[in-house]
Write a structure and sequence with these properties.
Layout lengths: L2 E3 L6 E3 L1 E4 L12 H13 L4 E3 L7 H8 L7 E6 L4 H15 L4 E6 L5 H6 L1 H13 L2 E8 L2 H8 L6 E4 L13 H13 L3 E4 L12 H9 L6 E5 L3 H11 L6 H8 L5 E3 L8 H5 L5 E4 L2 E4 L19 E3 L1
Parallel strand pairs: 3-4, 3-10, 4-5, 5-6, 6-7, 7-8, 8-9, 9-10
Antiparallel strand pairs: 1-2, 11-14, 12-13
Length: 315
């Protein structure tokens, strides 16, 4: 496994980051012991960087995975908090529920621009206080938008940026993949730590996973790349890819055979674009939200790229 410094933070991370959302109740919904087993397996195979968020409800999985584990672990979390009190609660919740006195990286969740960062600045100031006290080591933002990356470059107090980036630009807002790459390059030049998310476009690029991973791995401005995993087979495959090794056919076959389903996030607006795209007639709109009939869904992923809200995932 390759390890890199996360910008100027002094934090060393594995190039492969485990995005813990996937195992939790919002997606795969694995039992805590089962999800923790996958996380622990990744740690034991060289993945030293875990990414989660207050919203994901996955702290218990991480706490279980870290029991009696003596290796180095870098943990990043995120919160939608916008007041000092809300962020204080978020940080303390993370510390208590993961069993860690220090959360290495804490981010403002899903920022859109300088305006939203300004609106959350009271909460961010609390993170800066936590840095001074040694409760966290670095602070920053996560974002799906190009403007937020560019704006964060101009804010010296921001240490880390966690942008959405994949070779088809699925989910990128106010820009495309080329503009996001330029923004990421500017952030790297400004000394920001950068770890990207959604290299597989929320699972919509699973059929092209090797091409998708090769694309992000070639970007030297990305210090780490967060990937969601829910099985030991996926961990095996991704560790090999990120270590620059060939994936045996036996492993890739196992990963391809893992059952998948289309998952709609709670913020679905029921616009119907996905239903119009679905040639199998598997998607319907009910009560203002989209649903997929598993009896007819081919899990082809064609619906994902047409969702302007990026609420369609394949898990």
């Amino acid at each position: 496994m390759e390890y890199r410094e996360l910008g100027k933070t002094g934090i060393r991370v594995s190039r492969l980051c485990f995005g813990v959302l996937t195992v939790g109740p919002l997606q795969a919904g694995l039992p805590i012991d089962a999800g923790a087993k996958v996380i622990r397996y990744a740690l034991e195979n060289g993945v030293s960087f875990l990414d989660t968020a207050q919203y994901y409800k996955t702290y218990p999985y991480i706490k279980q995975a870290l029991k009696r584990y003596s290796g180095e672990v870098v943990l990043a979390s995120k919160s939608y908090a916008y007041t000092r009190e809300m962020m204080q609660d978020a940080v303390e919740e993370a510390r208590k529920e993961t069993g860690r006195d220090m959360i290495d990286i804490f981010l403002l969740h899903e920022q859109e621009s300088a305006l939203t960062i300004k609106g959350h600045w009271e909460a961010y100031e609390y993170l800066l206080e936590c840095k001074q006290k040694g409760i966290i080591r670095a602070a920053g933002i996560s974002t799906h938008t190009v403007p937020a990356v560019l704006d964060a470059c101009e804010i010296p107090e921001i240490d880390v940026i966690h942008p959405l980036y994949n070779y088809k630009g699925i989910g990128i807002i106010n820009g495309d993949v080329n503009k996001m790459a330029q923004a990421i390059a500017a952030a790297a030049a400004a000394g920001k730590g950068i770890y990207s998310m959604k290299p597989l476009g929320g699972g919509n690029l699973l059929a092209e996973s090797r091409e998708a991973f090769d694309f992000v791995l070639k970007n030297s401005n990305l210090h780490s790349i967060a990937v969601g995993m829910k099985t030991l087979e996926e961990v095996n495959m991704n560790v090999l890819i990120f270590s620059g090794k060939d994936v045996p056919e036996s492993i890739s076959t196992k990963v391809k055979s893992i059952p998948r389903k289309v998952h709609f996030e709670p913020w679905c607006t029921g616009c119907g674009k996905c239903a119009n795209m679905c040639t199998a007639g598997a998607i319907r709109i009910e009560n203002g939200r989209a649903y997929a009939d598993p009896a007819h869904c081919r899990v082809c992923g064609y619906c994902g790229p047409v969702c302007s809200e990026f609420c369609i995932k394949i898990i």
